[in-house]
Amino acid sequence: xxxxxxCRRIQPGMTxxxxxxxxxxxxxxxxxxxxxxxxxxxxxxxxxxxxxxITERVTMVNVKWPVENHLQGEYWKxxxxxxxxxxxxxxLFHDPAYQLPFIRSKAAYVVTIHDLAPFRHPETNTxxxxxxxxxxxxxxxxxxxxxxxxSEFTKSETEEMFPSVRGRVDVISEAAAPCFTHKxxxxxxxxxxxxxxxxxxxxxxxxxxxxxxxxxxxxxxxxATINSDIQLVVxxxxxxxxxxxxxxxxxxxFRDRIIFTGYLERPHLIEIMRGAxxxxxxxxxxxxxxxxxxxxxxxxxxxxxxxxSLPEVGGDAAVYFDxxxxxxxxxxxxxxxxxxxxxxxxxxxxxxxxxxxxWTTAAEKTFETYCRVLKTTNNE
Length: 380
Description:
Rossmann fold
């Protein structure tokens, strides 16, 4: 059998969708050839460079246009790709992030749905973005033989919004990459980013759904006020609708205690996670929340929102708060800051929690989904 995956989201500076794709295809590349099948990866040159460790195990097909090139990239995806699938005699095509070709091919289709943010929280994105992703998500769900949801929460939301998908959804969790491990941080890297005292870390792209403004307000009103020897590190690329963050920073007397690193490549992000007193995940909506597991794997206590999928992922290893109440976030941060025994307990529970998720398991379950699809389509 021949299985194909669109890997164009694997790019330098990639966010969660690219990380998911990289983790999954790396594990599948070790599984599928051993089962006597072929794995074909559609990748740009930049994608291929990040997949160099597995190129001997898979068939790489070069694509000129990344996902971000909307005009040519969309034409390739929806017009050219179905022809390529047919010409390569692909049995099953998997898109790891919401999009399937509008034109049918002879290949069966599988799609991964990470969340339904454009439907559930349209206020956090632009109108153009929401309309585009609603369309893509709806058509992909309708065209897919099976849908992979990254959490029980996402499965429940998907089945509620699209009742016709019931019976076609498999829950397959994400996992932290093997490079996220617990060990002392490289202090030179921390100093390079201006970190010179104990600190909280929040790592997310600057966009309204990540709730960073309220997190910063809570830090200023809580830990920064009661402890002059504490910093907040905010790591992530600039997204959209950041005026509220800019306003807070201009008016705060504690702005010198808040460090904005911008986007961090994995090696630096991991070191900063390892050194954090705790990691704060204040999102108002997440389909999975991979930073929770990544932080726990690095031995960092996690403070996060009691909302959406986050309690499902964090279990009893995290301290939770109401993300819509700055007072609740402040209280949780102060509690963890003030209690070293609690932080140690969270560290131990977090390491055990993260160890319960792996990309090997995700790949095995994904391959089971592929086989289920082909068994069904071949019997029709």
